[in-house]
Amino acid sequence: MKKDDRGKIIAPEHTVRADKYPLDDYTAVGRRVRRKDGYEKASGYAVYTSDIQIPGMLYQRILACPYPNAVIRTIDTTGAEALPGVRAVLRWDDPELPPKADMSGHFGQAGQPHEPVLDRCGYWQGMPMGVAVAADTEEIAGEALKLVGIEWEARAFNLDPVEALKPGAPLTNPESYPEGNFILPFMHEKKVTHGDPDKGFREAEQTIEFGMRRDQDTWVGPERPCGVFRWNGEYPEVWLKHQRPHLAKRQLAQFFKLGVSQVTVHCPYQGGSFGGWSQMALNMQPNIIAGILSKRTGRPVKWQFSRREDFCGAGMDNARYRVNVGFKHNGEITALHATSWFTREGLSHTDHFVENSKVINIIQESNGAICNIFTGWAIRCEQNMNCYCFSAVMNHVAEALKMDPTELALINDGCEGHAMADIAEWKRKRGFKNRDSLRECIEAGKKAMDWDAKWHLPGTGKLPSGRMHGLGMSWAHEWGDSGGSAAIGIRIERDDGTARVLGLRCDNGVCAETAYCQIAADELGFRYEDVQYRPFEEAGFTPMTPDSSTNLVVNGWAIRNAARQLRQKVLEVATSPRITERPEMGYVPPFEGYKPEDLDIKESKVFVRKDPSKSITMAELVRPSFFMGKMDVGSTEPLFAWGWQNQQGAYDINGPPGPRPIFVRQAHFVEVEVDPETGGIEVTRVTNANDVGKAVNPDAVEGQQYGGSVMGVSRVRTEEVVYCPATGVVLNGNLIDYKINTMLDCGPIDTIIVETGMGYGPYGSVGIGEDVASVVPFAFYAAVHNAIGTWVDLPATPDKVLKALGKVQEER
Amino acid sequence: MPSYPCPYCAAPFGSFEALKAHVVAEHGAEPLPKPHGLIALIVNGERHEQTVEPNTTLYTLIHDRMGLTGVKMFCDRGACGSCTVIMDGRPVLSCMTLAIECDGKTIETIEGVAAAKHPLIETYVKHHCMQCGYCTPGFVVTAKALLDRNPDPTEEEIREALSGNLCRCGTYPQHPRAVSEAATLLKGRTP
Q1: pLDDT band at A381 (very low <50, low <70, confident <90, very high)
Q2: Which residue of chain A comes nearest to B161, CA vs CA?
Q3: B 70-89 residues with CB < 8 A to A
Q4: Is the CB of residue B94 less than 8 Å away from at least one CB of chain A?
Q5: Which domains are seen in chain A, by residue range?
Q6: Is A436 exposed, middle or buried (CB count within 10 Å of its CB: 0-12, 13-18, 19+)?
Q7: How many CB atoms lie within 10 A of CB B28?
Q8: pTM, entire model
C-alpha cells in the first residue's frame, strides 16, 4: 500500500485545511434519500422519554419558587407526608444532600457553577427548589406540594441589567455573589480590543451612535424536560431527555459515587431541545432527585415539568447595546465600539466582525448582570448577540449612507481584518478553491427575492393597501463546527452483509442519523438501503453533541474514518486466506490470489476492478452466522471498525481569531408588510441562501432553512417572556400567551443551497443546525426598519411598532 | 380484561354488556345501572371498556393506559394540536377532552392511521415533514381528518386546517405538499 492510500484510509482529518481525500463520485451523499427516522416519527411509533412507563412508577414534582428572590425561613412537610399516595418527600435540608453539587449535564464542572441540589433560596420565579415529592400520581405529588408549609423571606429583586448594576441595587444572589451583581460574559473578559480603534475612528469620514435592545425569548421544546430513574439493585438505569447524555451519565455516576460503567443511560428520541434545557445549570437536578427518591422508595420515579415549569431558562441574547461606528463614505467600516448590558449568561457581541468582515478596529465592552430572571443559555445557538450586533451595525451604516445593505455587505465582507479579495492565497494554501461565497449567496438570494426591483429607502415603500412595505437582509459566516470529539463504529451484519452504524442516539431532528448512513454508504461502497443507524443507547460510541447543532462536520469525519477502515478490512478479508491448525476455523477467501487493491465495492458488491463480472454480494462474502454441518467453508472474521475525530474548536478564549479562517457565508432576506393602524407585521417572504460547502443531505439542509426561518421570525416577531415589574412573576408562561408562530404566520420560504466546498468538514461541508434561526431574526429587524423608517427593538410587537410610528405614547 | 361479577350469582363476565344480558336472562331483573366511571369506546376499530375517574382525560386514557403513545402532550392546554385524535370523524384535542365524555365514541389515533396504510404517512416521510417528530403525529391526524371531509383541499385550506398545530422545529412549509400529494394518491392518481 502506498503512503497516500494509507492516508486516504486513516485520513487524519486536519481541522485547518480542506478535505484532502474527497470521493470521486457520490451515490448517497448529496442525494434525496428516504430518511431513516421518517416512518417512526410520522406513524407515532417513535418513542420519547416522556412516553416511558414502568410498572410501579412514581411521579415526582418539585416546588417552583413563587418569588423572584426569596429564602425559605421555615419549612413544614408533615401535611405533605401524610397525604395518601405520597411515598417520599425530599427537603433542602435533607442530610443526604451535599451543600453543592455539579448539576449541569452539558459542560460539567468546567463551565457552570456548582449549586445545591435543592436550593433553600430561589433566584427567579419558577425556579425548582426547596422540596420535592414522589407520589403515586402526578396530581397527588402536586397536591402534596401545596400542603408544604413554608415561611418565606421575599427579597428585593432585579429584572433589568442596567438597573442591577447601579449603586444601591439589591443583590440578585447574595449567597453566591455577595459583592454585587456584575458577572463576566461567558468565555470573555469585560473589555476586549482588536486592532487600533482610535486610529479607525480617526480615519472615519462619518460616525453614528445608536442603541438597541432585545428582550428575552425561550426555547419551548415540544417534549417538556423529563426523565425516568430506576435502581436495578446497586446500579441505576436512567431515561434522559438530554442533548449530551454521555455527559449526564458521567455526572450521575459522580453524584451517586459509581463508576460510569455502572450507570445505564437510555436516550430515546427527543422532542426538540434547541440547546436550552440541556445546557443550563440545574438540568441534572430533577434526575438526581429522582435517583434519591427512587432509592428510598425502591420504585422507579418519573419526572416531567409542566409547560409552565418549562419556562425556566431563556436565550443568551437578552441584552441592551450602545454602539458607535466609524465608516467611510464608500461604506467601508473603519472602527467599532460596542457596549452591551446583558442578563445572566451572555456571550460576546463583536466576534463576527473579526470572523466575518474586514473590520479590525474594535472595542467590545460587556456589562453582565445577574438578574432575577431565567438563566440565559444557548437557544439554537450562542451566537445570537453576535448576529444581532453585526446585522444591526451593517444595517444602521447602510441607512446612514442611504446604501443598499447588500452592497455594504460586499464592501465589508472579509476575514480577520482582511478583505476577501486579499485572502485568495489563504484559501489556496488550505486547499480550497477561490470562490466568493457571500457574493454567490447574495446574488442568488436577491434574484429569488426580486430584490433589485423591490428594494427602496427606509420608510418609502407604501403599498396600495395602505400598508408599509419593507425588505431586510442579514448575513454571516457559517459557523460550521465547534471543538470536541466524536467516535462512531460500524459493523457488518453476519448474515446479509448489511452495515450498522453504531453511535449514541441524541436525535433532535436534524436528520443526522440519515446523513451518517449516507456517508457510510458511499465510503463503504454500499447501497444506502443497506446501511442502518443502530443507536447505542448505552452511551457506547459518542458522536459530538450527538446529532444536533452543527456537528456533522465533526461526526462526519468520524464516520468516514470508520467506513474507510472497514472497507479496507472487507477487501483484505475478501482476498486473504486464514489458515489455522483447526481446519474448521480456517477461511478460504472468495478472491484468493487477488490483492485488496485489485478489488472494489459498489452497490454492496465486491468485484474485481479489471473484470467486474467477477463479483459477489456482501451477503455471500460474510456468510451466515451459524452454518450447521458445513463448517469447512468457513466464515469471515467479525467485520467491524471504529473511527474518531478530535477537533480543535473554532473559537478561542476571548473570541476570534480562532485556528481557522472561515470562508463560507450565508445571506437571508425577509420581506414584510406593516399595518400602520394596528402595528401588525406580516412576513410575506423569507429567502435563505446558505453556502453549506457540500450538502450531505439536501433535505436536511432545507429543513434547517425552513425551520430556522420560522423560528427566527417567531422569536423576534411575537416571542417575549413578560415579567411583572411589581412582583417579578412571569405573566405568560404558557403557549397561549407566549406565542410561537403557526403555519399562517410566515409567508413562503425560499431555500437556496450554495456549495462552494470551502468548509472544513468532510467533502468541504459545514453545519447548518444553528445558523438560520440565529441570523434570520435580524433580517426581520432590518425589514421592519425598511418599512417604517424607524428602528424597533426586538421583539417587534405591535405596541412597539405603534410607538415607533408615533401612534401611541411611550409609557412613563 | 376487566371482570364484571353478577351481583346475584357472582358469575364473572368479561364485559358490562355481557353482564347485563345475563342479569336479564337468568335473574329476570332490570339491567343494572352502569357502574360509575365505566365507558365503552372504539379505538382504532377495537372495542374497549374502561373505568375512568372524572378527571381522567382522553389523552391519559389513550397514552398512559392503552399505551398508544403516538398521541403527544406538548402545550398541556389545548394550544398545540399534538394530542389530536379523530373522534366520530372530527379532530379533537385529547388533552382537553374528558374520557368520561367519550362513552360510545369512535376514536382514531395515529396508530390507526398508520395501520390503515394511509398515504399521508409515506408522503410525510417523503417531504421531510418532521424534525424532532414530537408534533408530527398530531399533524398527520389533523390532516387525515381534513382529507376525510375534504378530499381535494387547496393549499390555503390545508394551511388553515393545520394552523392549530404547533411545530417548534418549523417544518410548516413542508406539510401542504405532503397533504396535497396524499390527496392525489387517495384519488388513485399518480402525484
Answers
A1: confident
A2: A743
A3: 70-77, 79-80, 82
A4: no
A5: 3-30+482-647 (3.30.365.10), 49-155+219-310 (3.90.1170.50), 319-480+650-804 (3.30.365.10)
A6: middle
A7: 8
A8: 0.94
